[in-house]
Specification:
- By secondary structure, the chain is of the alpha+beta class.
- It has five domains: 85 residues, GIY-YIG endonuclease (3-Layer(aba) Sandwich), CATH 3.40.1440; 134 residues, no CATH class; 106 residues, Nucleotidyltransferase, domain 5 (2-Layer Sandwich), CATH 3.30.420; 146 residues, 2-Layer Sandwich (Nucleotidyltransferase, domain 5), CATH 3.30.420.340; 49 residues, DNA polymerase, domain 1 (Orthogonal Bundle), CATH 1.10.150.
- The protein contains 19 helices and 19 strands.
- The strands form four sheets. Strands 12, 13, 14, 15, 16, 17, 18 and 19 form an eight-stranded mixed sheet that branches. Strands 9-8-7-10-11 form a five-stranded mixed sheet.
- The radius of gyration is 31 Å and the shape is flat.
- The termini are far apart.
- Interacts with UvrB in an incision complex.
- GO terms for molecular function: DNA binding; excinuclease ABC activity.
- This is UvrABC system protein C.
- It is found in: Cytoplasm.
Length: 592
């Protein structure tokens, strides 16, 4: 262990707080919290760890810590630091799951809407629903029963919903606040378990309509009753009361954790959330962080009550979320927690074989590639490709692979600015210069490997810029293709040398995925630029077509191809005067 690290470990305080682990580039790669900083941080550097934690520890060259007054402060600070720094090893926030909800908007004339986002907008939310279909069917049912406003923005005349009795037409008619409030309260009561009451009321009305020989109305009411039964009564009751509650349980093994959340609404388990992720701290502590992120940063709707497994601090959850939190010891509530735990164990076991296969394809492939190249495992790889089909509109693209997987939010596109004509070496130099000069300027973490689409000449061009202009010594490899445009040979070093790779090896498959992805990305960007250039050049000399109209046409048709296929009438319908439209048709269909 490095001397400075040993010295810092020796003077850690025995107080609660957060710690931030850094790699050799000073980038924060992991954030954790601790009841006692001295014990928790030291534990990373003593004893044995599973493979995942060992990999994290191997990358740590420095750390910072922040002392807090209480464990609660440490928990809140940890969540904020994870959100701010997005460390690579903190993965709990990186899922993009969302669930269907119904919302009554907080407007003068409220609407009932379907949504997957829970916002702090004073709206009243219900859910989550078991799936999108269930939420949409429930909304259709409520739309039939309660004619709230439907339009996002008020139209100037009544729409179809008014004519079929599903809206009172506040756009034209005066709808009293009391009438809106009455419908809102009815919907609230319905969604809070009062649909039995609504069904009874509809049954009475159906019988009365039958007695009055109004059979058409009786049939409508009967259909509504049947719809309520179909939508709202599909599941068996799970608890005796109707309290909305979320049930948490977890299991962990081999450095992985599975958290199961059961959503209980009106006494029924209506949906569940399953999250499987690697973890590097203490299981109970990571569960606290997960629960905090689940509600405060992923914006899941807070229930009336949260049920927790043994070991998770219910008082901390109660303080953090200001909600009733329990660790049930017996009865139906304990059975729900136990059921969630059994599901977590099963899900974790089912995932292990898939996880191991995935790691063989990704992280292990990265590590084996590093061994073949004689460099540290390149967990971050940046790959470049130039595209200048027929010598026009030269562009370049960069893709990023993190831990052997595409990291699309950091892909970049480049229009070549300083090179005239199809000069691949000069273009590569320009793009490498622009990318890594910015990296130095912004203090970004450098990749472990740069991959160039090409052979010796391309590698030398990139190395020249990196080493002689930017004083950077990042390994560069070139991927050459065979005559069938397939990944063929890997070159690296100075001077570049051929690196033999078995064509059925995981490192070779990884390189194929990288080369295919960067080529796809560069080609799609080139087509986009070329299409736009052709579009503009065709239209630039037409009287009556300026920048504003060009943008409007592109927005309307989406592409030059679709515009060329459009008829004169369709171009006129896009808001273009007929004489100008005729000129556009002629220009787009000219031989030139």
């Amino acid at each position: 262990m490095m001397g400075t690290l040993k010295q810092k470990l020796a003077i850690l305080p025995d107080q609660p707080g957060c710690y931030l682990m850094k790699n050799e580039h000073g980038k924060i790669i992991y954030v954790g919290k601790a009841k006692v900083l001295k014990n928790r941080v030291r534990s990373y550097f003593t004893g044995s760890h599973d493979g995942k934690t060992q990999r994290l520890v191997s990358e740590i060259t420095d750390f910072e810590y922040i002392v807090t007054s209480t464990e609660m402060e440490a928990l809140v600070l940890e969540m904020n630091l994870i959100k701010k720094h997005d460390p690579r090893y903190n993965v709990m926030l990186k899922d993009d799951k969302s669930y269907p909800y119904l919302k009554i908007t907080a407007e003068k004339h409220p609407r009932l809407v379907y949504t997957r986002k829970v916002l702090k907008d004073r709206g009243k939310y219900f859910g989550p629903f078991v799936n999108a279909f269930a939420a949409q069917e429930t909304k259709k049912l409520l739309d039939r029963l309660y004619p709230l406003r439907k339009c996002d923005t008020m139209p100037k005349k009544v729409c179809l919903y008014y004519h079929i009795g599903q809206c009172l037409g506040p756009c034209v008619y005066d709808v009293p606040d009391e009438e809106n409030e009455k419908m809102v309260q009815s919907i609230l009561r319905f969604l809070s378990g009062g649909f039995e009451e609504v069904k009874s009321d509809l049954t009475e009305k159906m019988l009365a309509a039958s007695e009055d020989l109004n059979f058409e109305r009786a049939k409508e009411l009967r259909d509504q009753i049947q719809h309520i039964e179909a939508v709202m009564e599909k599941q068996k009751m799970m608890t005796a009361d109707l309290v909305d509650r979320d049930v948490f349980a977890y299991d962990f093994d081999k450095g992985w954790m599975c958290v199961q959340v059961f959503f209980v609404r009106q006494g029924k388990v209506i949906a569940r959330d399953v999250s499987v992720f690697p973890f590097y701290g203490e299981a109970e502590e990571d569960m606290l962080t997960f629960i905090g992120q689940f509600y405060l940063q992923k914006n899941h709707l807070l229930p009336k009550e949260i049920l927790l497994p043994a070991g998770v601090d219910a008082d901390m959850v109660k303080q953090l979320l200001n909600v009733k939190a329990l660790q049930p010891k017996k009865g139906q509530k304990k059975e729900l927690v136990d059921l969630a735990k059994r599901n977590a164990t099963l899900a974790l076991n089912e995932k292990f074989s898939l996880i191991e296969q995935d790691e063989a394809r990704t992280i292990k492939a990265v590590e084996q590639l590093g061994e073949q190249l004689g460099i540290p495992a390149p967990y971050r790889i940046e790959a470049f490709d130039n595209s200048n089909i027929q010598g026009t509109n030269p562009v370049s693209a960069m893709v990023v692979f993190q831990d052997g997987k595409p990291y699309k939010k950091e892909y970049r596109k480049y229009k070549i600015k300083t090179v005239e004509g199809p000069d691949d070496y000069a273009s590569m130099k320009e793009v490498v210069r622009r990318r890594y000069a910015r990296m130095l300027k912004e203090g970004l973490e450098p990749p472990g490997l740069i991959i160039i689409d090409g052979g010796k000449g391309q590698i030398k061009a990139a190395q020249d810029v990196l080493e002689n202009e930017l004083n950077l010594f990042i390994p560069v490899a070139g991927l050459a293709k065979d005559d069938k445009h397939r990944t063929s040979q890997l070159w690296t070093g100075d001077p570049p040398e051929y690196v033999p790779l078995a064509r059925n090896s995981q490192p070779f498959y990884l390189l194929q995925r990288i080369q295919d992805e960067v080529h796809r990305f560069a080609l799609s960007f080139h087509r986009q630029v070329r299409s736009k250039g052709m579009f503009e050049s065709k239209l630039d000399e037409i009287a009556g077509v300026g920048e504003k109209r060009k943008k409007a046409l592109m927005r309307h048709f989406g592409s030059l191809k679709k515009m060329k296929e459009a008829s004169l009438e369709e171009i006129v319908a896009a808001g273009v005067p007929r004489p100008t439209a005729e000129l556009i048709v002629a220009a787009l269909n000219s031989e030139e």
